[in-house]
Design brief:
Layout lengths: L17 H12 L3 E9 L4 H14 L5 E4 L8 E4 L7 E5 L7 H10 L12 E8 L8 E9 L5 H19 L24 E2 L2 E2 H19 L17 E8 L1 H14 L3 H15 L7 E10 L17 E10 L5 H17 L2 H12 L8 H10 L4 E8 L5 E2 L2 E10 L7 E8 L2 E9 L5 H19 L15
Parallel strand pairs: 4-5, 12-15
Antiparallel strand pairs: 1-6, 1-14, 2-3, 5-6, 7-8, 9-16, 10-11, 13-14, 15-16
């Protein structure tokens, strides 16, 4: 298709959709970035990476846009970015400082919004260790993208492509390929199916909203309350990282098969247990855990995962945590609830609902933000994209540790992002500083890993090797 409004074919020049506008408003209150990272063992020059970043922008229309709006913040629309290509920032780390990339994510990338007025809505960081040109040279490549144009799957797909392009620029003959620019894709709302579960989408929306409201009233779920109230414009996302190694991951997958639950169900159960465990006076009751659902395949026509954009909607599950509920009881409850909600297309109803609740501008957003604080499904969130087959080698480079991290902004207080890549399960926890203390976030991360690994122990056997390391 060609762009709407003005602009050449192949460029995105149109108003932001209701979902894009909501993310854009959230980002103005507090940065709403999605960050992907991979470690590259190998040598290349900075110029090769800059050329690759420029080629990546040429391939994706949404990496060539900025956002313009009226003086009062209304009528936001995509316009051309002022600069071509993606900016690349170089960071030199000390030889033994393997965690420097994580500090860059925590201190800079999650805290600094993309310049939406100028664009583009993505940037690259190259953290380098080791002597250049030697076998010790290592790079941590970090791609930060605005949630307006990306979700976790998008960020990792773009990073994968960036590595391919950089390898081609750095090493003649490497499989970078020559891809034509991808065609612009309409906003997600324009591709929603007209009928859901056999009824018109509008009627389905009303029924789904009423059903969710009744379920919430019956469940009376416990929600994570801020230790200290933090104004929307003062919210700052921080990062805690954990990881399951190959042995732990294999044990988890095997046990989930035997229990007939998904890995996501087990992770949700462990997260609910961990969050409740930091409230010593909390009686047995239901904990709300939100699960973002990828709906690319349900659109008409389906959207390829290589196309940039945000294609997730978060649905809540209410998990009853208490002494009588072990990990696998909770996991089965989470699995059944999420399967039911997906079958009833509750996630697509939430996308439709944004047409009614997305505010016109930041100045008109106070009521919507208060509603999200009070009842939004992302209060505690588990964003699990499952297995992501990031290549282990591109050209002469060895790749490892591919993972993603999500900013929280005003959508909740704690988000756990998960992907399985390079024979490890990467489990990153982001939280609103102050609303959740760093000490509590660390305890939740540790307790979630401990609850999960304890659930894998059988007949008094020791836990699987490792204790949830960091990559």
């Amino acid at each position: 298709m060609t762009a709407t409004d003005h602009g050449r074919p192949g460029e995105v020049r149109r108003p932001l959709s209701h979902m894009e506008r909501w993310y854009w408003i959230c980002d103005q209150l507090s940065p709403l970035n999605v960050v992907a990272r991979v470690r590259v063992a190998g040598a290349y020059r900075a110029e090769a990476l800059r050329r690759a970043a420029a080629r990546l922008a040429r391939e994706h229309p949404l990496l060539r846009v900025a956002v313009a709006a009226e003086p009062d913040g209304g009528r936001p629309r995509f316009v051309a970015a002022r600069a071509a290509g993606l900016p690349v920032r170089a960071v030199r780390a000390d030889g033994p400082d393997a965690d420097r990339w994580a500090r860059e994510v925590d201190e800079v990338e999650l805290a600094t919004p993309l310049d939406w007025r100028a664009g583009p809505l993505a940037r690259v960081v190259d953290v380098t260790r080791g002597a250049p040109g030697t076998a010790d040279e290592r790079h941590d490549l970090i791609l930060t993208v605005s949630h307006v144009v990306a979700d976790g799957t998008t960020a990792l797909e773009l990073l994968r492509r960036l590595v391919e392009l950089a390898a081609g620029e750095a090493t003649p003959g490497a499989p970078a390929g020559s891809s034509p620019p991808r065609a612009p894709v309409p906003p997600a709302e324009a591709l929603l199916p007209g009928r859901l579960n056999g009824v018109p989408r509008a009627a389905h929306l009303v029924a789904a909203v009423l059903a969710d409201r009744v379920a919430a009233v019956v469940a009376r779920p416990w929600r994570l309350a801020p230790a200290v109230p933090v104004a929307p414009t003062a919210r700052r996302t921080r990062l805690v990282r954990r990881e399951l190694d190959a042995g732990q991951l294999a044990a988890l997958v095997d046990r989930c098969r035997r229990e007939r639950v998904t890995v996501h169900g087990a992770l949700a159960a462990a997260l609910a247990t961990a969050v409740a465990g930091t409230e010593p006076h909390l009686r047995p009751r239901r904990v709300c855990v939100g699960s973002p659902v990828d709906f690319r395949a349900e659109l008409v026509p389906p959207v390829d995962r290589r196309d940039a954009g945000a294609y997730v909607a978060t649905v809540p599950s209410y998990l009853r945590v208490g002494p009588a509920a072990d990990l696998w009881t909770l996991a089965r409850a989470a699995f059944r609830d999420l399967r039911r909600r997906r079958r009833l297309h509750h996630h697509l109803a939430l996308v439709s609902l944004l047409r009614l609740m997305s505010p016109r501008s930041v100045g008109a957003s106070a009521r919507a933000v208060a509603l999200v604080d009070r009842a939004g499904p992302g209060n505690v969130c588990l964003s699990n994209i499952g297995r992501f087959d990031f290549p282990a080698r591109v050209g002469s480079w060895e790749l490892s540790g591919a993972q993603f991290v999500a900013g929280v902004s005003v959508s909740g207080y704690l988000v756990a992002t998960v992907n399985t890549s390079h024979a490890a399960l990467h489990w990153n926890f982001t939280y609103i500083d102050g609303a959740v203390t760093g000490e509590r976030a660390g305890r939740i991360a540790d307790e979630a890993v401990r609850a999960l690994l304890s659930g894998l122990r059988r007949d008094g056997a020791p836990l699987p090797t490792g204790t949830g390391g960091r990559s």
